[in-house]
Design goal:
Structural class: mainly beta
Number of domains: 1
Mean pLDDT: 81
Number of helices: 1
Helix content: 10-25%
Distance between the termini: 78 Å
Shape: flat
Order of helices and strands: EEEEH
Radius of gyration: 26 Å
Strand content: 35-45%
Amino acid sequence: MTDRSTRSSVTFAAPFRLPGFDAPLPPGSYAVDTEEEAIEGNVRTVFHRIATTLVVETTGRVEHRAVDPKDLEAALRRDREAATLPPDVPDPSMPPPVSWRWVPLWVRVPWSGRGV
């Protein structure tokens, strides 16, 4: 059987937790290694995932920890949702919202065919 390995990167904006880790992991970019084996058929070849590992760099050490892809995707989803929540304090560089009553009115006048 033929195996293939792919490496991708995920980025977390806030500390996150994954099953199998004792403490929350700090925010940052992490490499994700996926190993798959080929299952060859008469018409096409498909790949079956064997393992997914998260590369965690700690003080002077690099660990390859097995993770469930569903848990990793759920942690990424939670991180994205937390980042898109509306802030408690409005950004001072943004203009204040326009009242719904103040709407510019565009009027279309039929063209007479003559110059202005």
